[in-house]
Specification:
This protein is mainly α and 447 residues long. It has 18 helices and six strands. Helix content is 51%, strand content 4%. A hairpin with a 2-residue loop joins strand 2 (277-279) and strand 3. It is globular and about 55 Å long.
Length: 447
């Protein structure tokens, strides 16, 4: 692993006045329609009734609750487009809700680390939250240190290690904490050690890697068993090893370094690179690599690239960029840029079914802004992608931007991950002045 310093964080923003003005109009509207707990509760109930597969509204959740809403109002207030009182009201409600329904896990998207990430951001503007943040971090350290991580081959689920619920996501927040307590540092070390174990060589028959997901651990629903009858190796940024490699790299960059960590980052990155396919636009990645009955990796059905953050080349390229940034690997950065340039070529003229962060157009805008300092193509395409995101807005909708959850079913979702809050935060990020990265991006990009 290289030891050169990471690249300076640069922010490329959309500067065309007409686009910025249109974005600010949508941001204000979304903020106005999500300003109170009563408004959010009504929207969440409406979304649950509309959805075929409701994700559930959980107030302390970063991605599906009031914690995420607090971030929108916080960044809107910083930009002069909203009110700090709304942001602080939402974060107070999110924290208070844990007294009725305590946070059971440390995970990033719906657990203690996600709420802590949000509260830490709010504390920058309201120092009186510091005591609550310290207590939340103490709880987080206890949860991590007391969690019995699955370290048995063929019994590992993506929920154990991924960015959404597992060790990678929690680690991403922990290593961002300035001046951590000894227990927080110990919790980060435990997570790193678990992910280093995950990246180690498997010894069980018919097990190519320890992160193999066997059929008995597939999530309910979907067509996993049809596609992967003998198991598979997940390649999504959200639930697969690209998120693990990026989280370990984030820890490395922050100075949290453990035995075997550098080798784990290198081995995971090498495996990810070995899984790439190619088309006329360049390298691309599928959702996962199947294995046969003997545990041998088999060629995946190449299909088409999913133009999304959660799965597909856009997310994988962002993970590789995060690793390159942490390790100073210029060759890997060039590979990541080449891959994302291919995504932009595939996306030319394509209207994605949803405007959201997880699996929609906002995710592409977020990642395009990430690559813009390194890719002339990304810099050139950012304004047009941004304009295309604005075109999804409809003021007659309850929260202006609707998620197409499944083909033909639109949901008026107010959340960060799959709803209008995430779209508005993306618009804010792409138009914000200054060079400081929004802290909420860590939840999706690990840095």
């Amino acid at each position: 692993m290289h030891s050169t310093p990471h690249a300076t964080d640069l922010r490329v923003r959309v500067e065309e006045d007409s686009l910025v003005d249109r974005a600010h109009t949508w941001i204000r509207l979304v903020a106005e329609r999500t300003a109170t707990t009563a408004q959010l509760s009504e929207l969440a109930l409406r979304a649950a009734e509309q959805a075929d597969h409701p994700a559930g509204w959980y107030p302390p959740s970063l991605t599906h609750g009031q914690a995420g809403s607090a971030l929108l109002h916080l960044y809107a207030a910083r930009a002069g487009l909203g009110r700090y009182d709304d942001a602080f009201g939402h974060i107070r409600e999110a924290v208070l809700s844990t007294q009725m329904e305590p946070l059971q896990g440390p995970g990033l998207f719906a657990g203690t680390s996600g709420l802590a990430l949000t509260l830490a951001d709010c504390t920058r503007d309201e120092p009186r939250f510091q005591g609550s943040l310290d207590r939340l971090h103490a709880q987080l350290a206890d949860q991590v240190l007391e969690t019995p991580f699955h370290a048995v081959e063929r019994e590992v689920s993506d929920l154990d290690y991924d960015l959404v619920t597992g060790a990678a996501g929690t680690l991403t927040h922990l290593v961002s904490v300035a001046d951590p307590t000894d227990r927080l540092s110990g919790a980060a070390a435990r997570l790193i050690d678990h992910l280093v174990w995950l990246a180690g060589p498997a010894t069980t028959p018919a097990t190519p890697h320890r992160w193999l997901i066997t059929p008995g651990l597939y999530p309910p629903g979907g067509n996993h068993l049809e596609r992967y009858p003998h198991g598979y190796l997940n390649l999504g940024f959200s639930h697969g090893v690209p998120g693990v490699a990026a989280a370990l790299a984030a820890a490395w960059r922050a100075g949290h370094r453990r035995p075997g960590q550098a080798a784990a980052i290198e081995s995971l990155t090498s495996w990810i690179l070995a899984q790439r396919h190619a088309d006329r636009y360049g390298p691309f990645w599928t959702d996962g690599t199947p294995v046969d009955a003997d545990g041998r990796e088999t060629p995946a059905d190449c299909g088409h690239d999913q133009l999304a953050w959660c799965y597909g080349t856009a997310g994988v390229s962002a993970a590789l960029l995060a690793v390159a940034d942490a390790t100073g690997d210029a060759v890997l950065r060039a590979t990541a840029v080449e891959a994302f340039d291919g995504v932009l070529a595939r996306a030319e003229g394509v209207r994605l079914p949803s405007p959201t962060l997880c699996h929609g157009h906002a995710g592409l805008v977020m990642i395009c802004q990430e690559f813009a300092p390194f890719s002339p193509r990304a810099r050139d395409r950012l304004p047009r992608l941004f304009e295309d995101l604005l075109a999804y807005g409809d003021a007659s909708l309850p929260v202006c931007f609707a998620d197409q959850e499944v083909p033909g079913n639109h949901v008026d979702d107010p959340t960060l991950l799959t709803g209008a809050t995430g779209v508005a935060l993306t618009l804010l990020s792409a138009t914000a002045t200054g060079s400081e990265r929004p802290l909420w991006l860590r939840a999706f990009l690990t840095r």
